[in-house]
Amino acid sequence: MSKLYVVGIGPGNFENMTQRAIDVLRGCDVIAGYTVYVDLVRGRFPDKEFFTTAMRQEVDRVTAALQMAAEGKTVAMVCSGDGGVYGMSGLAEELSVNYPGVSVETVPGVSAMLSGAAILGAPLMHDFAVVSLSDLLTPWETIEKRLRAAAQADFVICIYNPSSRKRKDYLQRACDIVLEAASPETVCGIAKNIGREGECTAVMTLKELRDTETDMFSTVFIGNSQTRVIGGKMVTPRGYVHE
Fold first, then answer.
1. pLDDT tens, 50-59?
2. What is the CATH number of the domain that holds 10?
3. Considering 54, 82, 107, which residue would you say is the last residue of a domain?
């Protein structure tokens, strides 16, 4: 049976890719994906055939990858982070029903929630929720409902796609929703360009986060009522008893 791999490449630097991901990319015939993500691995695998599409061409991209696999090529569809977290795994599985001779396999990668948490400290040590503020595929009313429920339940909240040129005030709107249930002094953090040139972090209060500019290369962490700053790092205690 032909194979389409959906490969999570992590934050983008080679050191944070899993060995399994590296092995699959080395062994495949074609590396496909969104142009920005393919460019992150192109230099490491120069002998491969590459297929790229721009943003918002996900259906065309996955369909083309499945077609190439059906023609006998081993194809690796790369995704930043993990392919099963806001990536292409779900769409590949959905469309694969039209290609019964192609098997889809997801190769997991380090998601931005994990790589971002690692450079910020330890913000996800307790229960947390992950919400994307992109309303391209999800109505804002649904996003708002999820944010409000997570804040009321005192989850740490990890936010993907916090803002863009067309959604400049979305993070501000999200913070206003969280502020209905959380203190303005709640510890928050931003991880930007994780594993890439220009990587940086910032720790601040929820009140400060509300007025902070972010972009699509930023992952935002809003702490719960127990999250605090320890040695400049954002930490959510798990609850272990110690002196």
1. 999 988 899 9
2. 3.40.1010.10
3. 107
Using the Cα atoms of residue 141, residue 142, residue 143 and residue 148 in order, give the sign of their dihedral.
positive
Task: Tell me the C-alpha distance between 79 and 124, whole Å.
Answer: 23
Q: Classify residue 15 by its DSSP letter.
A: G
Beta bridge mates, 7: 78, 107
Per-residue pLDDT of the chain (243 residues; tens, 9 = 90+): 799 999 999 997 899 999 999 999 999 999 999 999 999 999 999 999 999 998 889 999 999 999 999 999 999 999 999 999 999 999 999 999 999 999 999 999 999 999 999 999 999 999 999 999 999 999 999 999 999 999 999 999 999 999 988 888 999 999 999 999 999 999 999 999 999 889 999 999 999 999 999 998 999 999 999 999 999 999 999 988 887
Q: Are residues 96 and 129 in the same domain?
A: no
Q: Which domain holds residue 65?
A: 2-107
User: How many residues does the structure list for the chain?
Assistant: 243
Q: H or E stretch including 215?
A: none
Tell which residue, 177, 229, 174, 235, has the closest CA to residue 205. Answer: 229
Q: With H, G, I as helix, E, B as strand and everything else as coil, classify residue 176.
A: helix
Rounded CA-CA distance 28/26 in Å is 6
Residues 63, 69, 71, 72: what is their CA dihedral angle, to the nearest 10 degrees? 180
Total structural domains in the chain?
2
Listed in sequence order, the DSSP H helices in the chain are 19-27, 35-42, 58-70, 89-95, 112-120, 140-152, 170-178, 206-210
The answer to whether the pTM exceeds 0.90 is: yes
